[in-house]
Write a structure and sequence with these properties.
CATH class of the largest domain: Mainly Beta
Strand content: 25-35%
Low-confidence stretches: 1-69, 105-110, 114-118, 232-238
Distance between the termini: 96 Å
CATH architecture of the largest domain: Beta Barrel
Number of domains: 2
Number of helices: 8
Radius of gyration: 31 Å
Structural class: alpha+beta
Strand order of the largest sheet: 1-4-5-8-7-6
CATH topology of the largest domain: Thrombin, subunit H
Mean pLDDT: 74
């Protein structure tokens, strides 16, 4: 080996070692250490002298740097999005405390997440609601305020106001109460389009589970086109029909007693629907929550405000899903 080749070898190896440790390009590193142009040329024109292990180490180090950065940025972006949603939506969500004599609403394992979770009469119970407009109308579930003798609404800043019911629809499990609050507290929610909702989308619930005001939980849309029975008092006494709310949205976002009447919003902070019930053996979140879609809310609430009630059409018959066994039996 002549002197020039030996010198080239001595320059090349430290340069690649530096590149593997720092992620710099070998050519620029060798240029900073070269003593004359012939040494730079030797480094650049001697790929056979390159150690494969060192070159692979450099590529791996650079690849790790490239792939890790987007993950950090993505996580930061998602966290910032959730923070922004909470700051935007939480001022619209209120805590509702009622004094009432009605029993807690249950049917099998499906429970309205409201009150203290007992099956007997209670004197006080808690729920959630959200600001509908700047005139002081608050939307909640009918089962939250049904039978209430007093209603108190608490805003996110702690201010409390007495409220009265201006309209209720037991068949859609929606109600509207009204408060006389200053304009700065009346921040209406932004309504979303539930026809665009798909299974797998991120869903965020904000409400007051167990009285813990302003609680935010996150999950996904886990099912669509469920049905939710209402008129449960009539079902118990066999004195009238039971109405099933159609197009109910299912979510695994944590919903618990006290969330009733709260909001479920999408990743842009728009209202998907009103949290109404859960499926659970323990009367607490089991990952199956039911939400009245905003499409129904937008149809019913304005009528409740203007007329106080909403009339649903009835056919006088009840239907059920046609299973393969039923289809075979009918075919005979």
């Amino acid at each position: 080996m002549n002197t020039r080749k030996l010198l080239a070898t001595l320059v090349l190896i430290p340069t690649l070692a530096l590149a593997a440790c720092s992620g710099t390009q070998p050519l620029s590193g060798s240029a900073s250490q070269a003593q004359n142009p012939s040494q730079v040329k030797a480094v650049a024109a001697s790929p056979a002298q390159t150690s494969p292990q060192l070159a692979a180490g450099s590529a791996t180090s650079q690849a790790q740097t490239i792939t890790s950065q987007p993950l950090v940025t993505s996580a930061t972006s998602i966290s910032a999005s959730f923070e922004s949603i909470y700051q935007t939506v939480s001022p619209s969500v209120v805590n509702i405390e009622v004094t009432e004599t009605a029993p807690a609403v249950t049917t099998g394992r499906r429970t309205s997440p409201f009150g203290n979770g007992g099956g007997s009469q209670v004197s006080q119970a808690l729920g959630s609601g959200f600001v509908w407009d700047t005139q002081g109308h608050i939307v909640t579930n009918n089962h939250v305020v049904s039978g209430a003798t007093t209603i108190t609404v608490t805003f996110s800043n702690g201010a409390t106001y007495d409220a009265k019911v201006v309209g209720a629809d037991p068949n859609a499990d929606l109600a509207v109460v009204k408060v006389s609050a200053p304009a700065n507290l009346l921040v209406p929610v932004t309504l979303g389009d539930t026809s665009e909702v798909k299974v797998g989308e991120i869903a965020i619930a904000i409400g007051n589970p167990f009285g813990l005001q302003g609680t935010m939980t996150q999950g996904i849309i886990s099912g669509l086109e469920r049905s939710l029975p209402t008129g449960l008092d009539n079902q118990t006494t066999q004195s009238g029909p039971v109405y099933n709310i159609p197009d109910i949205i299912q979510t695994d976002a944590s919903i618990n007693p006290g969330n009733s009447g709260g909001v479920l919003v999408d990743i842009s902070g728009k209202l998907i629907g009103v949290t109404a019930a859960i499926e659970s053996n323990s009367n607490s979140s089991a990952g199956i929550g039911f939400v009245i879609p905003s499409e129904i809310v937008q149809k019913v609430v304005p009528v409740l405000i203007s007329k106080g009630t909403y009339e649903h059409p009835y056919l006088g018959i009840a239907g059920s899903d046609v299973t393969p066994d039923i289809a075979k039996a009918d075919a005979r």
